[in-house]
Amino acid sequence: MAAHILRALACLVVVFLSYAVAIWPIPRTLLTGTSPAKLSPNFGINLHGLPSPPADVVAAISRTQSRLRSDSLERLVLGRGSADVQEIGRARLLTSLTATLRPGSPVESIAEETTAAIDSKDESYELSIPDDRGVATLVANSSLGLLRGLTTFEQLWYDHKGTKYTLEAPIHILDEPAFLVSIPRPAAAKLKANSGMNGSFPVADILRTLDAMSWVKLSILYWHVIDSQSFPLEVGAFPELSEKGAYSAEEVYTRTDVQRIVKYANERGIDVVMELDSPGHTTAISAAHPEHVACAAKSPWSKYASEPPAGQLRIASRSTLSFARTLFSSVAAALPGTMMSSGGDEVNLPCWEEDEETVADLARRNITIADALNEFVQTVQGVIKEHGKTPFIKSDMVLTHDVPVLDDTVVVVWQTSEDAAAVANRRLRLIHQPSNYFYLAYSFDPFANLTAAQHALVLGGQDSLLVARPTSAHEGPPFSGQMPLWSEQSSPENLDPIVWPRLAAGAEVFWTGATLPNGSPRLGANATSGTHALARLHELRYRLVDRGVKAIALQPKWCVLRPGECDLDS
Amino acid sequence: MAAHILRALACLVVVFLSYAVAIWPIPRTLLTGTSPAKLSPNFGINLHGLPSPPADVVAAISRTQSRLRSDSLERLVLGRGSADVQEIGRARLLTSLTATLRPGSPVESIAEETTAAIDSKDESYELSIPDDRGVATLVANSSLGLLRGLTTFEQLWYDHKGTKYTLEAPIHILDEPAFLVSIPRPAAAKLKANSGMNGSFPVADILRTLDAMSWVKLSILYWHVIDSQSFPLEVGAFPELSEKGAYSAEEVYTRTDVQRIVKYANERGIDVVMELDSPGHTTAISAAHPEHVACAAKSPWSKYASEPPAGQLRIASRSTLSFARTLFSSVAAALPGTMMSSGGDEVNLPCWEEDEETVADLARRNITIADALNEFVQTVQGVIKEHGKTPFIKSDMVLTHDVPVLDDTVVVVWQTSEDAAAVANRRLRLIHQPSNYFYLAYSFDPFANLTAAQHALVLGGQDSLLVARPTSAHEGPPFSGQMPLWSEQSSPENLDPIVWPRLAAGAEVFWTGATLPNGSPRLGANATSGTHALARLHELRYRLVDRGVKAIALQPKWCVLRPGECDLDS
């Protein structure tokens, strides 16, 4: 720890169990004092160490400036902001924040760093709010680190009649994701953007979701963009796929839309992993290319698929393999980033076994369905690799169908997190993505996939939070957890309240890790830590609403303003 | 059946199991043909029989005209509106609708009729869309009936590029609520407008909800306006109650707000039953009048209340009785309508037993808590009666606490509908209001409180519908069912998707009754009737979204456009 932090420590009253700072996720190291500080009406952010700063860094600073002005979250106490009038009056005035890229650091844009190889990212930053001078400081080794620090800085301030203040200066933060930077940080949102419900989520909805994701430092959007019901993705090599396979021309993500979404995400520190789910869930391809799809919309659907309508690519057909190769190549070529998924969930054997063309192809080539599946997976994984990307695949392809995959494949464990061990035993990296989505969305089971020992007081035992389990012990490196948004259960009408603030719970699980900055376990059998998280999650929720995201309330406001008084044991 | 209907029948192809009309709830009698008809660009509605029409009738016609122009629901088939281009081309042009108040009917406003005694309402109407002439006709015995008919008329039309058309002319409808008009119609929405979550629902949210309620002919808003956490109702006699008991001045329903909401509701055929929940759930009164509240915010709350914070009126105090009398009187005097509720759920005995003032009052007056509770209920029911209103009360007050109530009391059976029989055995009227609200909102159990025989095909077995059980056989007259919206589980952020289209399911249960217009049972063990309801409910949902209500989707659009193909047995 740097000498100046040690000096700062000497004059700090460290509030161990009750941070009154509305930060989510809570930083790895957080020291707070008891002095008030406030932003000058002319408060500015100055960038150092970047003579020609990347445009997205400048834009990030501008967004922070703007939010510092427009955010109006009052402290969630009785009387709200007016309770702090005296403190605000005597608060030290901060005139600026100096944001510095540490000397010797590479000068890259946030987007470049976000889409770089996952083991090359440095998101660390150091942030200091003094109580004895007028300038706050932010230092990082990367543009991405500066972004993370700015995001935290925005959350330090409450509003009262336009004045932005904190009661806890000096504040010192040393922060970075809990997992080693050599391992990809594991918090991601899954957006099934091909909403089965009502066409696709409008682009504006996705951008708003990306904004909110960046506010809680989520770093990956897993974009399940095509599905059985529609093909809403414009593909350069096959424009007919969306022309005929989407619900309507208005419900298509054009190449421009995709570029816009990916750029928007990358500039906010979010990498996009696009999934082209295959060979199952591909019925919508049959609208343009019926020759490539077996059992398309065959009845009864429940015999041939896990959801209607049935339909799978004809994996034994050389023509279909060629089609898949071109499809993946066309999409991969247009995407930045180093990750791409071929999906692979829920393939159905009777679909192929009863498909005359597939049966004929298998016989002609003297291969089995398993052989064909292997060949298909090798083909699409090969294309993904050719484009310099790490391939993702769904766990059932590996575990149920025993398909050999490339060594650096990332397996999405989506059925039950108990599968993680089996995947890890094959020395494959994995992502946890709890599949009990119905409960996630509607029954709010915070204990799903958690051990009994972890049940005690997960975030205070509130029932509307999702907490994903950090990857458990296994041989391969953990790749992490996703909060899936299954859009079968959602539509643009309820996107925000379904997702927020629930998604934020997982963000802290994976950013902050197992230990709170005061050294106590984040999930300890200690009511205080749970209450503490709940209070901050309330603040996050109110801040999200303030910023236009329709996050649902977690408790009656009476309880919000009186932390702990609504606990069942109080 | 009138002669002209019999004549119409002769040339109709009656489509028994597949109405392609987007009407919800489906009318009691519905005859449809197979000819296309469309509205003229200059289509108008002419009012007959009302030389000086009430302003709210004129306004209702104007709203219908406006919605006929702005509604843009295309038929939910493959190709949508474009599938009907040929039919639209040859469609008969309708130039006007003649709306007639039957000679001899009283000339009253919709609001007057809506707030009249519940056994005096006539909501019947007759609506004809010809296929051989240019004028449609609507006839009713009341302004309220005209409103119901206009509401149905709006739903008959699909849009294609601005042209409003039907494929099923001629259409003849004879309609009225399923229950005898001498019995109040039983579909109501419960709005706990004092949202425990985030203050109160903004007035605009309530008005939007009232609009949507009127579109599905729901006739009662049960307004649970005050609760433990806050007192958001401005009361003439005690302005301090909301000044000190609301979350903030912005989170108060002023008298102007209440008048506006009630007027808005009444003009749309919705009567408002306001509930002043008492003597429990009254903690918020203690902010201004601590002398009237026992165990206010006492810890642990779970010992003294069913939800935090604890607090109940001091029922043994003469001063508190006088306060309650004035409170009820002040609120009742400002409300039209013939119904008002004193609530009465979840009173807690230890709260009073450990309250020194209550113990002293009981001893001084030599009465028991039961005596005091009786006196309290008699007092507030007496005030309600004095204002010419029918008193409502919660079932636990009658069943758990055995409190004698006035003979014409309506009992809200909210804990379990199994209590209905016990209430009916006391010859009291009742409202069903299923209390398994968590499941309602999140697990979508359509079978809750239904007998096994009714399970078979409730609205096709969809899982996101609520179906309340029509009042079962009992001695007293049925008073009906409510769809409760428990705002502990909702906030303005998710009001629409939580409520819609779920609430509409109950509207049909109670408007249409047990029999579909084709004579088959609405809940028969016949998949077709379920599918039929689902298709119409999809249409309602799309129409709600079209009109700005964020109703959630019930199925992927692929399934919506292909009725039946996603059924599990297809």
Describe the structure.
2 copies of one chain form a homodimer. Chain A is of the alpha/beta class and about 575 residues long. Chain A folds into 2 domains: about 30-180, Chitobiase, domain 2, CATH 3.30.379.10; about 210-445 and about 475-495, Glycosidases (TIM Barrel, Alpha-Beta Barrel), CATH 3.20.20.80. Chain A is about 35% helix and about 20% strand. Chain A has 21 helices and 16 strands. Chain A has helices at about 5-10, 55-70, 85-90, 110-115, 145-155, 205-215, 240-245, 255-265, 300-305, 320-335, 350-355, 355-365, 370-385, 395-400, 420-425, 435-445, 450-455, 495-500, 500-510, 525-545, 555-560; strands at about 30-50, 90-100, 125-130, 135-140, 160, 165-175, 185-190, 220-225, 270-275, 295, 310-315, 340, 390-395, 410-415, 430, 480-485. In chain A, the strands form 3 sheets. Chain A has an 8-stranded parallel beta barrel, surrounded by 4 helices. In chain A, strands 1-2-4-3-6 form a 5-stranded mixed barrel. Chain A has a two-stranded antiparallel sheet with strand order 10-11. In chain A, helix 2 (about 55-70) packs parallel to helix 5 and helix 10 packs parallel to helix 13. Chain A is elongated and about 85 Å long. The model of chain A is unreliable at about 1-20, about 180-185, about 195-200, about 435-490 and about 525-530 (pLDDT under 50).
